Each structure stands twice: as C-alpha cells, then as structure tokens.
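Workshop exercise sheet. Pairs work together: one partner reads the sequence aloud, the other fills in the structure field after running the prediction. Swap roles for the next sheet.
Pair: D.N. / O.F.
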Amino acid sequence: MTTELDGSSPIAAAAPSDTPARAPWVRGAIAGGAVACGCAAIALVNPSDTGVPVCWSAGLFGVDCPLCGGLRCVNALARGDWLAAADHNVLLAVALPIVVVVWAVWMFGATRGRSPRVPSVPVWAWTVLAVVALGFTVVRNLDLGPVAHYLAAS
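Structure field:
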C-alpha cells in the first residue's frame, strides 16, 4: 500500500514532470498588456465627458480621496499631456510614470535571463507612502488658497 507522504501515490506518478517551464517574464508581460488595454480604453473614452464623479467619496461625501481624478489623470497621460494629468491628480501623475519605468526595467532584466525578483519594500517606505497619501488627501480637501485648489480633483 502506498501513502501520500512517501511520494509514490498514483496522483504524483501521473503528474507530468517534463512540463516546459514558463519564461519568467510572461506574468509581467500579461500584467503589462492588461494595464495597457485598460489605459487604451480610458484614453478612448474620456472620463471627463460625463461630468459625473466616479469616485464614491466625491459622490457621496463631497471629499476627494487620494485617487480622485485618477481616471482623468490616466486619460491625460495617455494623450501625453502631463500638465493636465497633474491638474487632475498630481500624486498619480508623478507615481504612474515611475511605476512604468520600474516595470520596464524589470521586464528588460527578465527577458535577458536575469532572475526577475521583485524587491521587498521596507516598512518605513510603506509608512512614508501612507503619510504622503493621507497628507495629500487632507490638503486637497482644505480651502487653503490656490495651491490646495490645484491639488483638488478638477
């Protein structure tokens, strides 16, 4: 009688061991393709056309969350208009190009055969990101003059 612990079970014997390994860059390419399709859809359908706020916090509470204006920001970035993107959401207008560059460097390394490891982000960096997002949210919702008005999702 065979047991599952010794590895001689019929299920383990039936599993093909010569299955070709997927290239390490395939998952990144699939994710990048999905994001590119989403960005193309946002570029084709301008979220500013309806005038209806898509964000629940803006629609229900009248408060801009850190991502408010994000669809319009992506639309403007897809059209190459960084200033309009920054007018809608300056935080995303700065962060999204950085994310794209990091992804491109990672994909370049993965296609060259380097081990595609995603670096671990230290806790202090997540804390700084949370504080920046919270501060951005608070400042963009206060009436502090032209600077805060610029930060609001327009």
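Discussion prompt: The radius of gyration is 22 Å. What would you look at next?
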